[in-house]
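Quarterly update, task 2.4: potassium ion-bound model.
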Amino acid sequence: MLPLLIAPQIREADAYTIAHEPIASIDLMERASKAFVGWFINHFPDKDQAISVYCGTGNNGGDGLAIARMLDDHQYKKINVKVARFSDKSTPDFNTNLERLKKTSISISEIHPGSGFPIEDCPLIIDALLGTGLNKPLEGDYKRLVDHLNSLDKTIVAVDVPTGFFADGEIPHGAGILKADLVITFQQPKINFLLPESGPYIKCWEAVNIGIDEHFVQSLHLPYLAVEEKDIRKMLKPRHRFSNKGTYGHTLIVAGQPETMGAALLSASACVYAGSGLTTACIPQSGLTALNAYMPEIMAIVRHDMQLPTIEWAKFSAIGIGPGLGKDELAVELITDVFTNYKKPLVIDADALNLLTIHRELWRSVPENSILTPHMKEFDRLFGDHGNWWQRIQTGIQKAREYAVFILLKNDYTIVISPAGKVYFNTTSNPAMAVGGMGDVLTGIISALLAQHYTPEEACILGAYLHGKAGDELALPNKINVILPSQVAARVPLTMAKLLA
Ligand SMILES: NC(=O)C1=CN([C@@H]2O[C@H](COP(=O)(O)OP(=O)(O)OC[C@H]3O[C@@H](n4cnc5c(N)ncnc54)[C@H](OP(=O)(O)O)[C@@H]3O)[C@@H](O)[C@H]2O)[C@@H](O)CC1
Ligand SMILES: Nc1ncnc2c1ncn2[C@@H]1O[C@H](COP(=O)(O)OP(=O)(O)O)[C@@H](O)[C@H]1O
Ligand SMILES: [K+]
């Protein structure tokens, strides 16, 4: 897992690396700038392109000065540097890099407090005004400059973070923030890059390694982690010789109403594709023909009118409940029946989450270590309205602990929060997956993984990764705009096979 540090921890890790590698601070800045330039020249190879580098007087500005010098070394011919002298203070590494830059032929100008802004005729701007040192929303000269740059319609490449963008914590409404086409960020994505609030300010980002001490970072035992492919490869278990369907569990999917049988079909079929040894769907009688026709591998427990079906609880190694289940009286009875009689962790989704919102007393019988899979609206219905995603994560941490459950908060970067307070960011999936029924497929996959004896924590992390990866494999190579949940479900075996190879 890639630990995601918050700004003060980034400073701590930088300082540790400087003291223990050891490396002089100015050389670490040189290394960071070189990593930036390495990525930059691959993507902006036109050396006749005119580039303006805007620098603050802190270390982000120091990076900007070093980057300008390195681009000059790489024969970029039309570079100019504009230093925003809005403060009397400057860091030693900024000063050193300014002296180094003065030895080149690059033109350097200064912008002073209250002054007008120079005409900008370069199509490409490198933003090195402020980085992770941001400690309050922009105002005054910085805000004016950022508003001015935003109005110019230029291509903006930000160093580490766009100026004015908080790397973590709440992003104040209406704050002045530079809108970057690309952010080349050091060592790790900043947590707020992974939240929807970054959408208006960051078109895309790339993290470049600058050699921060990894042992030190791991020793911090940080709560925020990004899931990487290597973690998934370690977690996935291959099927072994002499195994049989009993080895891989029997999953029950409790889902569907006559009008929403599709949710049950998607969920139960995804469960089969994700490797559950046996799959049974508990569905309304009117859906039986559809189920048998859609996928003969799935067995059924039929719900007749308003009658509770008889379920042999001990038969099932995992249960997923909720997709398309509805909120009528039978649904309430059914969920109560499941919660009371089944003692192992459940996967609780969609209408089952809505029922938990309406019938609060149900919370008392949610089995420990169950997995709740809300999207943003379901999350807010469960736990109250939230003004931003950072708050939502903090509430998730509190509620996961309070109820001893895993909360999988669906998003572009789906967030898995454990009862122990770990926050895992999934790194797969794409907007082609924004199609109704996609969450039902995820529920089926996670339920199947639980049935196959993955721990609830592993089932969440693996399930979100496989679901998103299958979607990426289908959509990304040909830039396909829309993919169907049924396609994602059917792709899962191949995605798993690739990860096991
Ligand atoms: N540490 C390292 O070794 C490495 C660091 N690296 C680079 O350093 C960057 C962090 O640098 P940094 O800490 O110097 O802060 P930076 O973002 O340049 O800001 C400068 C100063 O601005 C001020 N300020 C804050 N908010 C403000 C506001 N709203 N409006 C106006 N002013 C405001 C605040 O000063 P204050 O006002 O508190 O005195 C702050 O200190 C990081 O993003 C990366 O690019 C890399 O080279 C790798 C090695
Ligand atoms: N823009 C997006 N980028 C990445 N993944 C997405 C995007 N939109 C949706 N998804 C994924 O699709 C799924 C949608 O789930 P959900 O909203 O519960 O769908 P439904 O309720 O229709 O089944 C989630 O797993 C989510 O992560
Ligand atoms: K910046």
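Highlight for this quarter: Residues 2-222 form a domain with the Rossmann fold fold (CATH 3.40.50.10260).
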